[in-house]
Amino acid sequence: MRSFIFDFNGTLFRDTEFHRVAWKQFMANHGITISDDDFRRRMNGPGNDVILRRFFGDGPTDAEIDALSEEKERIYRGIVSADPSRQALAPGVVEMLDLFKERDIPCAVATASIRANVDFYMEALGLKRWFDYDHIFYMTGEFPGKPDPAIYQIAMRRRGYRPADTIVVEDSLSGMRSAWDAGVSGIIAIGDTVSREDLAQFPNVIARIQDFYGFGRFIDG
């Protein structure tokens, strides 16, 4: 049976715009101006530790990087919390996850988010309806973020998934590179963030989708 690991931000939850606004506000608070192109090329997909080191260098300690990360994520959670209409999973996700639960399909989440955000998603987005914390892998500071393959390798090892049977669903180039280097059998690209040319880097991309309606067709290969 196939196993599935889903990226979360920009994939199960269409929050890329909320992160863009939050990063702009956070960086402005620290006297740094970023463009939309900066966000697209350097900030969409990697973990906060990777992003913050790109802009703040090696000077801050790990503890200071963690504090900066939480500062940015407080801004982000405030943006999402400000409007209940923003607190909805991507189109088709509820139906897909209900099907997975009904059929007992192995699945997990691997996200560049920190624990405070995962707690928020479990409650505000109702993620606990389908997942417990043993099925959600997030940034703990114990391993590097995407595009490093560690998070997918750890998720597969701890859940007992065989890479040869595992499909990853991703929206970002860094996430796809992480999944590719982790050796998963297939990648499903969602949305149009990654160009056709960039997708060609990954011969195991089996489909590009725009939403999760009809996702059941991928369960049995």
β-strand number: 6
Structural class of the secondary structure composition? alpha/beta
Number of domains: 2
Please identify the top-level CATH class of the largest domain: Alpha Beta
Q: SSE order, as H and E?
A: EHHHHHEHEHEHEHE
CATH superfamily of the largest domain: HAD superfamily/HAD-like
Question: So what's the overall shape?
Answer: globular
The Rg value, from CA coordinates, equals 17 Å
What spatial order of strands do you see in the largest sheet? 3-2-1-4-5-6
Look at the structure and give the mean pLDDT. 95
State the distance separating the first and last CA atoms. Answer: 9 Å
State the helicity in percent bands: 40-55%
Unreliably modeled segments: none
Mind explaining what this structure looks like?
The structure is a single chain. Helix 4 packs parallel to helix 6. Strand 4 (166-170), helix 8 and strand 5 (186-190) form a beta-alpha-beta unit. The protein has nine helices and six strands. It is an alpha/beta fold. The chain has helices spanning 16-29, 36-43, 48-56, 62-81, 93-103, 115-124, 150-159, 173-181, 196-199, and strands spanning 3-6, 107-114, 136-139, 166-170, 186-190, 205-209. The chain has two domains: 3-14 and 88-218, Rossmann fold (3-Layer(aba) Sandwich), CATH 3.40.50.1000; 16-84, DNA polymerase, domain 1 (Orthogonal Bundle).
